[in-house]
Amino acid sequence: MQRVGFLLKVKDDPETIARYKEHHRQVSPDMLDALHRHGWHNYSLFMRPDGLMFGYVEVADSFQASLDGMSHEDANSRWQAMMEPFFESPDGGRPDENMVEIEEVFHLD
Amino acid sequence: MQRVGFLLKVKDDPETIARYKEHHRQVSPDMLDALHRHGWHNYSLFMRPDGLMFGYVEVADSFQASLDGMSHEDANSRWQAMMEPFFESPDGGRPDENMVEIEEVFHLD
Predict the structure, then answer these.
(1) At A46, is the secondary structure helix, strand, or coil?
(2) Taking CB atoms and an 8 Å limit, are A45 and B102 in contact across chains?
(3) A23 vs chain B: nearest CA distance in angstroms?
(4) Is residue B107 part of a domain?
């Protein structure tokens, strides 16, 4: 198991943020199932009021393996296409290709 | 159990950041013991290269109860006094009084 922290940035717009949260209250069962099959566990997303997102996830093997596995899932392709307009991504592209992993500097079980 | 995400900001200075990380590789056993006694579990700190810190912790009861419990621990008072100069805190004060909790918008077990 590997713990991963990553950052993303949703556009700082009240309506965009409200719709983003609404989508995340009703993620499709096939998307959740795909995440599990590719080793995403204890996965939480947190949001600062300006749209800065922090993700915490415990992956079975490596973050890259869990991202690669999802990249071939139809449910994820549909989800990422729906999510793309919500995010600030200077170079474009799917949100799951713009997750910036950050360094763990402390851990206590 | 409650999952908590919070933010802190270490000064954006290479030497400060290096020393912060070094301190976190050798936290005193009495500080770690106090955290456990006050319900801090699966606690990780992540850092962006500019010093933005994200904390993830699973607390036994509530974040406030776990913070309040630590506030009476000598080991924590010593630790917070040592940590204070590392942080950007506009209004001064101990770092553990400046943790900004952010909203969980998604969770998958």
Answers:
(1) strand
(2) no
(3) 10
(4) no
Q: Do B44 and A107 touch (CB under 8 A)?
A: yes
Alpha-carbon distance of B51 to B10, in angstroms, equals 5
Each residue's pLDDT tens digit, A94-108 = 888 889 999 999 999
Q: How many CB pairs under 8 A join A and B?
A: 94
Range of the domain at B76: 2-102
Give the C-alpha separation, B20 to B18, whole Å: 5
Report chain A residues whose CB lies below 8 A from the CB of B56.
5, 44, 54, 56
Q: Measure the CA–CA gap between B2 and B9, rounded to whole angstroms.
A: 23
Q: Determine what percent of chain A is predicted with pLDDT higher than 70.
A: 100
Q: How many domains does chain A have?
A: 1
Do A53 and A45 contact (CB within 8 A), yes or no? Answer: yes
Residues of A in Cβ contact (< 8 Å) with B107 = 43-45
Q: Is A109 inside any structural domain?
A: no
Q: Residue B71: inside a domain, yes or no?
A: yes
Out of A24, A43, A46, name the one closest to residue B102 (CB). A46
pLDDT tens-digit map of B25-61: 999 999 999 999 999 999 999 999 999 999 999 999 9
In a domain, B61, yes or no: yes
